[in-house]
Amino acid sequence: MAIMYPDFGPKDNDSPVAEPLIYSLLKEQLGDDFHVIHSLPWLSSFVMDFHESSSPIGEIDFLILHEELGILAIEAKGGKRIRHDKNGFYYLRNSDDSVARINPLHQLRRGVFAIQKWLKEKGITVKIGAAYYFPEISTESKSLPFGYFNTSTSKPISYIIDINHNSNLRDRIIEIMTFFRGYLNANKMSHGQILQLINMILPTEDYAPCWLSRINNDNYLWLRLTPEQKNCVEEILVSQRYVLNGWPGSGKTLIAVQVARALSERGEKSLVVTFNRLMAEKLEKELAEHPGCHVRNIHALCRDAAGFIKNENTFSREWMEEGAFEDLKLGIDEGFLDGYDNLIVDEGQVIREQVWDMFIGAFNTKKIVVMCDAFQVLEYEKSVDISYLESVLSVSAFTLTNSLRMPKQVCDRLRLFNKPNYAVHNPRAVEQDTLLERVVPNQQDALIRLLDQLISDNIPLSYITVLTPTYMSISTELVPQGVSVESIGRFRGLEKPIVIIVADKRMSEVEFFCGYSRATSKCIVLLDAFDVKNGAYGRLGADIYQASSAHVEQEASKSLTSQIVKTADIQTVPLFSTLPLYWSESWHAYVLMSGGHSVTRALFEAYLATHSSPKIFTWSEVSRKTLSLISEEVRELDDNMNHENYELKGCLTCGGVTPHSMIYSDDTSCYKCCHYSQVRDESFEAALHDIDMLLKTPHSYTPADRKQVDPFIYAIGGLVRFSKKYNTKAVSFSLASQSKIIGKLAIAFVILYFVISSNRGKYTVKVSEVTKEAMAWNSVLNDLTFNSWQGHVNDAFNVLQRHQLITFVGSGMRSFDSRLISEQSNT
Ligand SMILES: [Zn+2]
Asked: From the CA of 627, how far away is ligand 1's center (Å)?
């Protein structure tokens, strides 16, 4: 008995009968010196590596290997009514006597070429003969078409095996292989070489448990038509209307391709419509050899229609949005689609109702087949649902429930984003490493490292796709050429062995769903740790945080400016006891450190912006790798806080982690290198020293003195004194949300007023009271008119109300929320 791969053979319900029949004949008649590989799939993405222009779907039915006789590929064609005429072979269908053209010659040639080239790139040269097997018909005594025989040698030989050879198949195989050994001048192979070849073609975990072999193995095992899918193709071919619904990876596109091919072989013309352009390109390649199939994405179809009715004005935005569909309608009315016998629509859920009306009109008496995944609809798309399609096509949708294409781990994860209302079965084994959800401090750094790792693992670049939502762009410099970068929307319906999703916190669950389901071997998701910590990414983020909160917290802190500064040790010298201002010996710059009392810090920053001061770096608790520079320019109270932005990076010149200007990217971007000579400013520090004394020992100053101080310093003094009475976090959040400098001042006085008023047991206040009282506390505020100050106080009330810290109670009165003022709210 021959050694068969796989050893379980094709199942009987895998129509047609030819392959199971040939499988058993080869197995029984050939000895154990023959190795037979069945259904070598050219669905595999590795074929696309070097065969980009042709269809990736197809297979070599049988590949026979023998030490002495070499290698023979066999294309099997079943059917009892195969004929040949000047146009090639064709089937007669038993059911309706319709004709289906086949081209076994072409299919096999391409497969043989592909595998020879693939092996050659791995350093192995093999020569493969080709034969055609029609086990149910007799070709004897009939003249053979060109390409199925060879007369160039002394003994002419036909490449066809037919029903007459079934009983002595061994002799016929040896005859053909012997011919090719001489004809191709093929070398003998050792037993070891044969096993090596088989291991390369059919890699297993034991042979090479690396990702490359796993990907190839996944392609071999999971990207073939299942019996369920084959039945579906048969049913569609005999139905006038068909709606196919299914989970990602259940084979809808595969089925669409098979149906389109079969219809073309019958001699019928089919219009194949998809929503997105990449998908149309993929289908076009797969149907390239089927002249009856015409693939268009919906916009290209509209453009064709415009051409048909001779409208040349198709480049405006208005045309793209509405005119396109009007032209499609006009074109259809004038017979633009009359030449087609069938309509096949992939991604039917995202074709809008308006277009469905036109399609149903145009194909009223013809076949309409729709592939549909109700889950893969992005927010901005004008979609239809399954029940709409069922109703307009008067047919019940058939749902595919086997999802084979994705790893099981990925398939299971999809339920988090969208739970199907039918059972989805994925027969693959659970492999934990097929889904990696990585929480990282910096997604771009993580992406670079990840790609380096994959490349050093010998994964071909063409196996990898980086996916992001459209509103997040990835610098193409980060990604080596050969790795594709696509938006999730555009990549819908397509697939890659390894999919890397660089997630954005704005991503919807549908986008995660569409992205995850594109991976056939491994899905890697890069999530920003800080965003996960702050509750982004919906249920996914919550799930990950719950599972590993300590890790998320740790990764999140790595990107914080405060954390980086701490690690970099910039040699800070504290200058005052009440103000968080430091001198950095290593940067030669003043820094306003985060940490400590954040309300004081925010108000002091506003004070510095409105007074003459040297350059000072500042950042907040939530700044990530960035800091800003308070410049020497003096701002007015009415101005916005507006600093120059810097980024923390390593500098090659001075060798430290330093602020780099985000405006300049040349060698003047390192602050330290450009301002090495900056020294401490004595008069500035002396002025602040006085303020520090005031804040430290306010009671050694008279009330009249305190009344005269800068209003920011007054507010700081007051708020420091009552810091246990209000919610620091909520107040600093409100201060940060107000960009106008005077707006911050007004918020500070309003808070101060609330605190003092609550001490007196009064919880409801009026805008005008606060305005008046604040002007009485601090005489500098009297530089402003009452009305303009009252306007700012009113704005402050609105900000606090927006943050739900106070409530409007009627006639200009506000009461505070317990989250703002509380005896215990010191957080
Ligand atoms: Zn430098």
From this structure: 16
Q: Are 608 and 616 in contact (CB under 8 A)?
A: yes
For residue 730, give the nearest of 652, 631, 650, 801 by alpha carbon. Answer: 801
158 CA to centre of ligand 1 in angstroms: 77
Cα–ligand 1 centroid distance for 503 (angstroms): 33
pLDDT score of 467: 96
pLDDT at 207: 35
Would you say the CATH fold of 408-419+429-555 matches that of 227-400?
Answer: yes
Q: Which CATH class is domain 408-419+429-555?
A: alpha beta
Question: What one-character-per-residue DSSP string does 632-701 give?
Answer: SSPPPTTSBP--EEEEEEE-TTT-SEEEEESS--STT-BHHHH-TT----HHHHHHHHHHHHHHH-GGGS
Tell me the mean pLDDT per 10 residues along the chain, length 827.
78 60 90 86 45 52 91 85 68 60 72 77 84 83 68 74 90 92 85 84 51 64 72 91 90 90 92 92 88 93 91 81 89 93 93 93 95 81 88 91 87 89 82 91 87 82 91 79 90 91 93 93 94 93 94 90 86 90 92 84 92 90 87 88 85 83 75 84 93 89 88 93 86 89 95 90 89 93 92 93 87 80 52
Gap from CA of 658 to ligand 1 centroid (Å): 7
Candidates 121, 196, 55; CA nearest to 460 is 121
CATH number of 227-400: 3.40.50.300
Q: How far is the CA of 587 from the centre of ligand 1 (A)?
A: 9
For the chain, the domains span 3-202, 227-400, 408-419+429-555, 561-679, 697-816
Residues with CB under 5 A from ligand 1 (ion): 651, 653-654, 670, 672-673
Ligand 1 mean position, distance from CA 560 (Å):
21
448 CA to centre of ligand 1 in angstroms: 24
653 CA → ligand 1 middle, Å: 5
